[in-house]
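Model it.
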Amino acid sequence: MTKALVIAGLIALGLLLGTAGHAAQNLSVEPDGTIRFEASLSGVTRLSIKRDRIRRLVNTASDFEATNDPETGDLFLRYVGVGYFEKPETGFIVSESGVTIGYTLSPVEAPGETVLISLVGVELDADEDEAPDFSDSFGYSDDIAEFATNIIRDIAQKHVLGRQVPSGRDGKTIRHIPGEGWSASLQIAVAGDTARLVREQDFYRSGVLAIWVQNTQLAAGERSWVIVLEDD
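Modeled.
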């Protein structure tokens, strides 16, 4: 697979069956202004400034891990905190062109979020005017989302839907499924004596492209199918 696909795969943890069409949050803001956006608790949130690149986030503390894509200039947030929380976080986004934007982040239970930021009232130099729109680059494009979603949908239809989850330990692999440039494993998530929230992060490891959990809310003793798609 291409390098761009591998980069996207390292962060595409929250891709669920049938969510390729999830609407992006399109925001407009002036320099030194403030935006509000929602960030996923169970997947990955992508931040992108149109015709600019994000250099870093500045905050005092956060339950979200931030990863920059050096090719696209996008920034990806992944929740790494413990448990669920409802309190918003605040901080600043600093772009490579020197623009600073305040932000308020509100957590949501969603498979993934995309936040596209347009800068208002910013004049571009001649070179900047010809710069590509990084939000549509191949680093984490709809093509990648569609690629992974189609594979997961096909696996779910053939091996999951309508079939009872077998017994076994948490994380047990039921079946390996090879493909061209990728491989997938059909695993199970198991709740013990208490209810459990199954998160995609629980099944993530290096090389994973996407993860689908059939049922994220498990009562005590319940089980769920999990599909893990990996770069081969």
